[in-house]
Amino acid sequence: MNYLNFDLEKAKNVSKELNILLADYHLYYQKLRNYHWNIVGRSFFDLHIKFEEMYNDAILKIDEVAERILTLRYQPTSNYSDYLKLSNIKETKSELTDIEMVNNLIDDHGSILTQMAKVVETAGECDDEGTIDLIGAYIRELETTTWMLDAWRMNTESTRKAV
């Protein structure tokens, strides 16, 4: 039964891209846990709380992406060995400075945003508005989080560009 009213064979490509995003989010989630547990120094209180907020958000998105794959009638990837193969995100060591952690997360956000764009493009090819809507909201939220992390690492002398 095709209750989605679009070509389920084309949805296979959407599911493939969503599984890569799922892998990205799993490695990102674990990296945030790592940073949450291992942050030290003057930024401890700020970043310990921020990283917890971010991994709580990531775990919700993991579930939503997996459920979207199931909605499309495909199987979500569910093994860490597969996530490591599929993901655009790479593991890091635990002994990083606060700025290294934030820089690494901002880089990861770029990779995740690139993957999200692939999902949206692929979903557009089969008129999958549900996936486009879901991922569009994620893009906006991740861009905001990235801006906040970037603001955290700015020097107070840094200026914004005038419009």
Characterization of this structure:
This protein is mainly alpha-helical and 163 residues long. The protein is built from five helices and no strands. The chain is globular and about 55 Å long.
Helical/strand content category: mainly alpha
Structural shape? globular
Q: What gyration radius follows from the Cα positions, in whole Å?
A: 17 Å
Helical amount = over 70%
Oligomer designation = single chain
Order of helices and strands: HHHHH
Q: The biggest beta sheet, please?
A: none
Uncertain residue ranges = none
Number of helices, counting only DSSP H or I runs of 4 residues or more:
5
**Distance, first to last CA:** 52 Å
Give a quick precis of the structure.
With 163 residues, the protein is mainly α. The chain has 5 helices and no strands. Helices cover 73% and strands 0% of the residues.
Topology record:
Layout: H1 8-38, H2 44-71, H3 80-86, H4 98-125, H5 129-153
List key phrases describing it.
5 helices; mainly alpha; 73% helix; 163 residues
